Backbone:
């Protein structure tokens, strides 16, 4: 699944910024008794296969996920306890999602200057945003519109990579705009730069 592939990329880069993920084969019928009522409402059978489409803004029957009969291969994520509240931030390099309308960062080459203002909250997490740009570029994820942090205060906590569902869509095309935060801000952790140098040429170890 996408989540499992994303987890592999994260481990290669050394980014400990998301819950652990493992691959599993799950019998959808066998877990009905522990499935949430809202999700269960989206279950249906198509051509003898159990399917579901979930509950979200974009979820719809036409794009349902279907098992082979009752068994589906997917991923299981170790989640945080329900009492642990996360803070949601709007990504400063979010796209408009409106055809023909560009976001401010797409029009203003000096946009990053605004992010260096500590009063806006992004300053303390700026290097995490740069790491995320590298992460998303390697996975072709141009859909990073929001993100979460551990922090419940006004100070920016460590950024979490949770929503990666639209990754690995176009393997033969590089979406360079994903790297725009790095180009405009000209910042990157030394550890991230070192890791990319090590990975250059397809190797995960240093040469020499």
Residues:
């Amino acid at each position: 699944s996408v989540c499992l592939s994303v987890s592999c990329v994260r481990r290669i880069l050394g980014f400990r910024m998301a819950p652990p993920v493992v691959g599993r084969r799950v019998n959808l019928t066998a877990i009905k008794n522990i499935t949430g009522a809202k999700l269960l409402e989206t279950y249906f059978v198509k051509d003898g296969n159990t399917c579901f489409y979930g509950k979200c803004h974009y979820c719809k029957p036409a794009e349902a996920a279907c098992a082979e009969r009752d068994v589906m291969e997917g991923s299981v994520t170790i989640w945080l306890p329900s009492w642990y509240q996360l803070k949601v931030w709007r990504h400063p390099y979010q796209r408009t999602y409106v055809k023909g309308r560009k976001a401010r960062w797409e029009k203003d080459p000096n946009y990053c200057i605004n992010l260096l203002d500590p009063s806006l909250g992004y300053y303390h997490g700026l290097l995490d945003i740069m790491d995320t740009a590298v992460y998303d570029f390697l996975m072709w994820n141009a859909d990073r519109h929001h993100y979460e942090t551990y922090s419940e205060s006004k100070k920016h906590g460590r950024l979490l990579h949770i929503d990666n569902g639209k990754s690995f869509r176009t393997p033969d095309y590089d979406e360079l705009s994903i790297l725009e935060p790095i180009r405009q801000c000209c910042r990157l952790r030394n550890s991230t730069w070192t890791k990319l140098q090590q990975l250059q040429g397809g190797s995960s170890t240093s040469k020499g």
Q: What stands out?
A: Strands lie at 21-27, 44-46, 49-52, 65-66, 71-77, 87-90, 146-149, 159-160.
